[in-house]
Input
Amino acid sequence: MRPDFSDPARIASSFTDFLRTERPELLPQPAVFQGALQSVEATTIVALRYAEGVVMAGDRRATEGFSIAHRAMEKVFPADGYSAIGIAGAAGPAVEMVRLFQTELEYYEKVEGEALSLAGKANHLGRMIRANLPAAMQGFVVLPLFGGYERKLGEGRIYRYDVTGGLSEETDYHAVGSGGRDAKNSLKKLYARADQVDAGRAVEIVVEALTDAAEEDAGTAGPDPVHGIYPTVFVIDVMGVREVSQADVEPVARAILDRRTGT
Amino acid sequence: VSVPSGFMYASPEQVMKDRADYARRNIARGKPIVAIEYVDGILLLAENPSATLHKVSEIYDQIAFAGVGKYNEYENLRIMGIRQADLKGYAYSRDDVTARALANLYSQVLGQIFTDSLKPYEAEILVAGVGGDASETEMYHVTFDGVMTDEQRYAAVGGQADALKQFLAERYAEVPDLLAAIKMGTEALASVGNAELAAQQLEAAVLDRALPRRKFRRLDVAELEQALAS
Output
């Protein structure tokens, strides 16, 4: 346990590379299960660009087959100070991927003295998804949605992935998960152009899209006033990433529900 | 007894003394660092003409690192600390990463290098940590030979550390606010070196209990100027 001068490449800025050589057992392992194992996966995550940045939101339901495993699950996380990640897919591997991703970004920032660029973070996440491919082939698919604020350009960006880790940037909005298609249809009707949407309106749009998705998709929960559980919403702008409190999401969600009940 | 030709004997005492002298001499050439406990946490202050090569940096949520001496050596120690902290936090939980454990690791590593290597590290470090309240404030000074000491209220590492500590002992009465701590630290550094220290020549950072998760924050030149003018 002493610093090794013999190989300067060991002083690398990747936490994952460090784990790979020093503690490989801590890396997410490709699944090798066979049989009827069922993972927790139904979800809707939405993200959209607005005038000052990006808003990302997720519903709170986790399911195991036909049962609701968890009704207050968090599926959107800050990845670092200026980005957020929302997860759809198998919950266990997804949460593990988020934890490693967060550690990786902070490790790089501390070692290098400055944070990775947003595109650098997005590419790294793509590699992590690719590393999960063997598990994905067995049903443990993890498909995150990544969004953040690029400080050098002064704008928000959204990245989507396929199961092989291939990424593409979305200019306006995107939704993933079992209710993703319904949420996207809803976003299409509600959203005009990023520069015409302010933060308040952006939060309204994402909560409404999740509510629409919940009406069509069994794996997605709508706002739940009975238990006081509302979607997780993060706003990312020049000030960084911050969560919109449940107390602030509640009136937005209630207004949408009231409109639908006609009161 | 036949001694192979060219074999030179040196007693262990002599070897250790030579190594210690070598390390001490080279460390003393560098600029020192002071750490001062203030009302919201710990201030770390160094004379450092470079704005990009840091002597003070973040290790983990509530832990900071300060190193003096040979740059590549304390930089190596810094990265090792970040690795160990991030590894522990990832494998167990963020709450399990402590300043004391980290300082202990540094003590082991530096002690082993001092004993086993041809050349000791020409670096000394300070590990600082804050907790929920002032009672959980920690400062550990680890020297080139692995000797670890627990410091209270203020600490100094590097050349003239003893003179700095004496200066601070005379000045430090009650726990100062941040501005007063910056002023006190700057005066201490000026007392052993450059008498006309300007904000641009200082590197300063705090561990601030009031910050959310990551307590480490660098102070910019404007903040330092304001403190020095007050």
User: Anything to note?
Assistant: DSSP finds seven helices and twelve strands in chain A. Helices of chain A lie at 15-22, 91-112, 118-131, 133-137, 180-190, 199-216, 246-261. Residues 91-112 of chain A form the longest helix (22 residues). Chain A touches chain B at residues 1-3, 5, 11, 15, 18-19, 22-23, 26, 99-100, 103, 106-107, 110-111, 113 (CB under 8 Å).
